[in-house]
Amino acid sequence: MSTKNVKKTVVLRALALSFSIHACFANAAEFTDNDFPSQQLGHGVYELAYDQGQNALYAASAPSFDKDKTAGLVFQLDANSLKINHKIATERRAFAVALDEATTPSILATRWMVRLRC
C-alpha cells in the first residue's frame, strides 16, 4: 500500500469516526433542572450516604461556622422524593456520614464519627 493510500485511509477513518460521534450526540436528550428531584437543605451539606434497606439518603451538614454555633445536622431523606423524613441534631458539626450495616440500622456522623440511631 502506498503512502498516499495509507493517508487517504486514515483520513477517511477519522472522518467516519467523527460523523459517528456527532450522530450519537445529536440524538442525546437534553435535561433541565426539572428532570431531577432536588431538596434545599441549607448551607454546609458535605457528604451523603445511601441506606438501601430503608430507601433513605443521609446528608451530613455543618450549617454554621460561628464559634458559638458548633452543632450539626444529619438529614434523613426519602431516596425517591428527597422529602425530609428526619432532622437529627448532633453536638458537633457533621462533616461526614457513613452507614453501619453490621448493626441495627445506624449511621455514623461528624468528624469523630458519633453513632446515631434512627
Automatic annotation (TrEMBL):
Keyword line: Signal
Domain of life per record: Bacteria
Signal peptide: 1-28
Protein name (database record): Uncharacterized protein
